[in-house]
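Hey Z.,

So I finally got round to the adenosine-5'-diphosphate thing we talked about over coffee. Here's the setup:
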Amino acid sequence: MDMKVVIVAKTRMGSGACIGALTFEGRSVRLIAADRDTNDQFNQEYAVGDVWEVTCEPDPDSIAPHVENVIVTAKRKLPPLSGLYAFVMRHMSPKVGGPEILFDGLTGITSAGALYVAERIGVPSYSTMFWRPDQALQRDLHGKRIRYRYPTPDGGRTVTLVGYQEPPHEIAAGTLLRVSLAHWWRPVEMPDGELRCYVQLSGWIEPSESSFPVIEVEQPASLPSQIGRKPLEVLQDVFGYDAFRPNQDAIIDHVLSRRDALVIMPTGGGKSLCYQLPALIFERLTVVVSPLIALMQDQVDQLRAWGIAATFLNSTLTHNEYMATVCAIRNGEITLLYVAPETLLRPETLVMLEEVAPACLAIDEAHCISQWGHDFRPEYRQLIDVRRRLPHAVCIALTATATPRVRDDIKASLDFADEQTFVASFDRPNLFIEVVDKGNAAQQAAEFVAAHRAQSGIVYCSTIRQVESVVDTLQFHGINALPYHGKLDAATRKRNQAAFVRDDEPVIVATIAFGMGIDKPDVRWILHVDLPQNIEHYYQQIGRAGRDGLRADCRLLFSFGDVQTIQYFIREGAESEAQGRTQRLSALVDWAQSRVCRRRALLTYFGKAAPVDHCGMCDNCTHTVDDLVDLTVPAQKFLACVYRTRQQFGASHIIAVLRGSRSQKVLQRGHDQLSTYGIGMEYSAEQWKQIAHQLVGEELLRRDMQHGQLLLTERGTTVLTGKQSFFGVDPGVTQAERMAEEIAADYDAALFEQLRACRKILADERNVPPYVIMSDRALQEMATYFPHSEMALLHIHGIGKHKVAEFGDVFLPIIRTYCVENGLSERPKTGGSATRRTKRRFVGSRSDVVGQAYEAGWSIDELRAEYGVKRQTIVNHLARYIAAGNKLPARQLIEESELSAETQTAVFNAFDELGTSALSPVFTHFDGQISYDELHLLRVVHNLRKATDLA
Ligand code: ADP
Ligand code: ZN
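And the result:
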């Protein structure tokens, strides 16, 4: 049978849509694709208002009242109709009135108001009709689906919306509604209940020519035009940043001069700015291709918060949103358009872009083009053609990939020359990197997380079981960590990820699947409780921390047990891969055990030169450079206990003895009778473990490879007998605590918390993640400089004019009130923080910088505050500075001492007599009356004088 039909309803956007049509004779039909079982694109081609000529046959499976189904075997599109509303009015005139007239008055209602037709009442001979309600219908979002409620004194009658149209709050009285009966349904909880067809709303037609209600795209924020301005001015005015990050200015200049560029920068390096800023200066659109659909909304929100007209096109948009967006692009209202590759490749998108002629095409995550990458996407290959079709657009491709093979592949595929390639340093200087022995991983995680209270962070685990165990332990300690792994359903994963991004819950415990597509700039720490498989994975995962440039703490728990587990899986895996995987694993193991600067070793692994020998931001650097304290006494206790137990036990037994354990193992061996039994109560078992680790690391003890017992070395014996002292990291403070202290020292934490709470409210109101409103760094600076005016606020990191206008009124009063209450006043922020001033002027290792700064007139206290470390640390730096052959003014140093001149002389005499290699003899000599702080200081002066005397 051939017939001409007009499409009047479509209940889903994409494929599989349910299509309602009217024949020119006024009969209602539902079009079913003959090939729907084999074709997953079926019914996509119809649009409401279309006219089609179809060849069809009745559906043999139709059950009353759904007798309108027809199976379409062939079809042809005809020119569209000009007045759909008029057509329906003429061919199938609607019923007018209240819901009681629907379906011949056969409808019943549930207690919630839902309309239905019950089988036992007798069903109508048709399942679709048109209705013009005499009162407006109100949208109701309370249930699982959107419903519209027709008002009645007893609470109303409701119909579920199944149409694809944008649901307004209210559908006006007199609108032409299409209603249909749903499938037969019997609630599961009522096996004996009646069969019902519920009434649904499958679309409406406005009395205008168009059947699409036009929806407004959110008005792009009004930023004054930046076209033709200088990049640095735009950076400061719009983005609110003081200066470019390394390479950004060169890349931006390059792009602005319309030369293509390939940008290779680590995660957090600031890639986005390389196309976002030129986009503002160009006169026409910039198109950004990105595979990360889930991120687009956040990226666009972030840009809009800066006042930038940004938007996106991808498969998540409704038809109307899509049309409105396209319209805004054509009208030149958009500066930055994010688009998914598959959307970009659609013919209509390409045609539109050809017309609009964008100024710039940015290809984000460009490694997706490479088959060698971990993330190959076939659509990316076709971007080569897109580039050709948009010949006037300068192209910038960006990636954080580190492997040379993938880089070369991108270069070759997109045809970039060497001089167009910018490779930024892969160093992430703000990440503090450390490796710690693994014990009870979940317990260690709890301690670590507790030391980072209220900071966002990720715990990475290698198994789902580990995720569960860590989550349980954290929750036991009152930390509401959320799990993320492959066995959770997609909705839960999505929800947990959103809660993390939006700062509802700061801690996520995940398998490595988590992180792709996380763009949260303020992740403050990463904890690996299990060993990753290789350095590549590890570096990628820690790369997710500290994208905002503030310090972030990365800790890896290391154990040989994990190494064996991975080895086992390598042996079980593909033989062809075993060799490579083993090599990569052993590189990681070497790295984890090494005592050289972690950062330098990582960069060396990636074929990059490290900027300095000692970064001062890894455990190996800080353990040797910072915070060394005299641990001679505890070391002697431990070594003595090793000796007394005949060098036959591992660390945990030694610790049990030191801490006076009543365990069977201790009692059975009579170790409670030893002189070293119970002499180590001043440290916890965990702290003793740290000390033991240092004793092994510094070769005072050696671990027997076969049986694991600890053996004294020659060096150990000299310390045990008091011939040498031992300096190490104070086990009283863990690295995490030190770090928390360091950060806390810098800004007013109470004000920060107030600002943070306010930010969270603003973010929730706007339904965006908090960092879109303000970065942590901005809040920290506010809590440091206490800006009182809009002018002062403009100097805060990441705050441009737009943000001042939007949020100044909210944040400034909080700061002012806080200052009044606490007697604080505004502090000037002029051209960067003091830290940056120091670093700019003084170069070299941390000791060099400290030494030079001291020479230039900084006091020890100022330096201590500057770096947020102990006084003794600064003194140690100065000592090292002098030991390296530099001179410092002894007079200035001695003024730092609080001792009387007499006592000072006595100390110097004691140094002459007892030597300066160890402080403890001098300490004992004065019966502990003179603090180690003073002794450290005076030793520096003493050595300095000696050096000057000799000269
Ligand atoms: P990537 O894409 O390279 O991982 P992003 O572009 O997301 O990094 O940038 C990371 C963070 O650094 C963002 O919060 C961004 O706003 C910020 N940023 C970028 N450039 C600068 C700059 N010049 N000064 C200060 N912050 C910057
Ligand atoms: Zn280092």
